[in-house]
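This part of the workshop introduces the protein records we will be handling. The question running through the whole workshop is how a given chain folds. To make this concrete, we reproduce a full record directly below:
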Amino acid sequence: TFWMNNPLATRSLKDNKLHQMKAAVKIGFRVPDSIITTKADDLMAFCEIHGGEVALKMISGHVFNTGDVKNLDCVYTQKISMEEIKERKERIRWCPVFAQEYIPKKAELRVTVVNNAIFPCLIHSQESKRTLHDWRRYDFEKVKHKKTLLPAEIENKIIKLMQQLNLSFGAFDFILTPDDEYVFLEVNSSGQWGWIEDITKMPISETIANTLANPPKS
């Protein structure tokens, strides 16, 4: 039986960015330096090491209701300073904080992978203040989405990571730095692709359908 994706494989990935990051490092990807802590002093030391600013994010994706079922939202990645951490120092011990070094961005990428077919989309997130720190805030009027090409080295690493994680579908998120370095953020085993296909015209859904109709031989 062919799965896209096997539930046993996706269970270990769901809500587990640390597992993904460890696997990505083994493949050879650069990942952001990260910390999970309930100790304010540790977070401040981490922030100081990385220039006084870090990215604060959820360790797992959650949506919440802002009024009714039509108003769902999520917690977006934020850039916070040492001063902001100090202001909230007493609150940190009540809930684990997931922080990463803040990596300057030239752009970002959503790379949709179906079996061995790779569909890279370059997201010009730095063209809008709204999407500077998290492109999921969506500003389609200002933020261009373009089909792009990846270096062969990055494509090979993506396929290796897919194989290592036992995935047949994955939606990868990368940062492209000003020096054109690719930084792995995460892979979503059930990530959205519809808007990418609508804008770029890459045949993602067709490839999914063909893969399900003609599954690869194990």
About this structure: The two ends are 9 Å apart (CA to CA).
